[in-house]
Design a protein that fits this description.
Helices cover about 55% and strands about 20% of the residues. The protein contains 15 helices and 13 strands. α2 (about 20-60) crosses α4, α2 (about 20-60) runs antiparallel to α10 and α2 (about 20-60) crosses α12 (about 320-355).
Length: about 400
Amino acid sequence: MNYPLYLGRRLALGGDGRKSSPGVKVAVAAVALSVAVMTASIAITLGFKREITEKVVGFTSHIIMTVDPQPGDDNLLTLTPTLKNLIAADPGVADFSLQTSLPAILKTPEDFKGVILKNLDDNATRDFIKSNLIAGSMPDYSVDSTKLDVVLSRTAVDQLGLQQGDKVDCFFINDDVKVRRLKIAGVYDSHFDAYDNLMIYGSRQLSAIFSGFKDNQGTSLLITTNDFNRLDETTSRLKSTLDKACAEGLIYRTYSLENAHVGGANYFHWLAMLDTNVAVVLALMMIVGCVTLISGMLTIILDKKKFIGLMKALGAPSGKLRMVFVYLAMRVAIIGMIAGNILILLLLWLQDRYHLISLDASSYYIDFVPVQLDWCAFALLNAGVLLIVYLSLLLPSRIIAGITPADTIASE
């Protein structure tokens, strides 16, 4: 029979009475706080990564494919059947669509602003802009009357003194000047000023009016992958496929591929710094929890000194008694972990649902503290905490070897 485990489960955490000592209560509170802080750190970091990644990808794509420039060429990307089949055959590609990015000027009687006009044809871009819409609605471009409707950022409408529902003149200057009066159907705000300050979104028909591009032409091709975690691998494989096809004469142009990791490098470097901060927080909280638990275990040992002397008088070896108190301390840890998990998971759920805690969007690109409830990560964290706590308790439990029945009688 494993009597150390049995005694560890049955013994009270206090002294002779059933009430826990203050040291044990402090240990429970410290473990609960440590687990709560570690869980919150992981959830918030994962939330930041999700939100920032979605914004970077929303304004660009997983992969942006463009034509390698050649002298005397228009450098347009033409989606030929052969090129389309090559891209669709890649196992990492989920979807792709042509994108047209055109420089334009928005002008009001009092002011003007340079912008980049993009089309809203692909579902990923449309869903992203819709998720950041703060006024108006997304235009339904299946209706001809909406082809001149656009979506502007809050930055643009504020700078031009406009609002949703207003109309504004848009100039496109190439070999000649083309102008159309556009209606502001919606206003979005992503808090990414670098993009919000430039991007406006309209129909592909509007882009065709300004550019004269054919249906199978654009300035770039937006490619969405099946697995963002394997983005670099998919980019490299697709680039090799296209280069090989060009060398074999299947396609007549070479193409450049830039993925979100490159296009949004500054943002992803910032997220990498968050990983370092989280590692520091986890280490500090683990140290705090372990030190407090060791103190709590020593308090329990002092409270149970009479019990130790009695068990040794009955012939119990020190090794077995050590495990009794390791199990007692593990009970304290588990109680604290359960309390910490219940408290922080409730708070994280409330934050995820209601965005109770806000942030300065100009500094963090998000106006609330984002969280992601990753149950696998939380389970691994708790398993790791239990293992580290167990190992950290083995050494200080050796103090029991120095307690003899004679010491117990003398203290009585």
